[in-house]
TrEMBL record:
Keywords: Cell projection, Cilium, Flagellum. It comes from the Bacteria. This is Flagellar protein. InterPro entries: Flagellar_operon_YvyF. The lineage of its organism: Bacteria, Bacillati, Bacillota, Bacilli, Bacillales.
Length: 135
């Protein structure tokens, strides 16, 4: 039997297929039910309104969306914040502008690394050739 501390409340529990204790799981299910009920009545609500009226954190509502428990198809105004800049998005974890900035930065760094490795390789061969000429 595996024992672990619940990351949410800190209680010791017998770990099974879930990473949180049963009491926290029941609490999360209640939070989900309150969010789902609010969204059934208020389909045009945004995430901040859902959080304010249900007392469920935006982070937890975002988890519900990512897990597929809350569908964005039926809630047309609902979105969640981009993990980088905080703009509201409806898919993935970054908005398009942050994603393109990240791709540009990665490409730039890859270019720097390949230039550095080429320069280092050419310097090594040059030094070896020079040493051979000196003999």
């Amino acid at each position: 039997m595996n024992l672990d501390n619940c990351p949410r409340c800190g209680k010791l529990f017998a770990k099974n297929f879930r990473d949180i204790c049963p009491s926290c799981m029941r609490e999360i299910d209640k939070e989900y039910e309150s969010c789902a009920e609010f969204l059934r009545k208020n389909r045009g609500a945004i995430i901040y309104e859902v959080s304010e009226h249900t007392n469920v954190s935006i982070r937890q509502i975002t988890r519900f969306i990512r897990e597929g428990r809350i569908s964005l198809i039926e809630a047309y105004n609902l979105g969640y914040p981009c993990e980088v800049c905080g703009d509201m998005i409806r898919e993935n974890n970054m908005c398009n502008s942050c994603r393109s900035r990240l791709i540009k930065e990665v490409n730039r760094l890859e270019g720097v690394n390949t230039d550095d490795s080429r320069a280092a390789a050419s310097r090594l061969s040059y030094q070896i050739n020079e040493r051979l000429k000196d003999r």
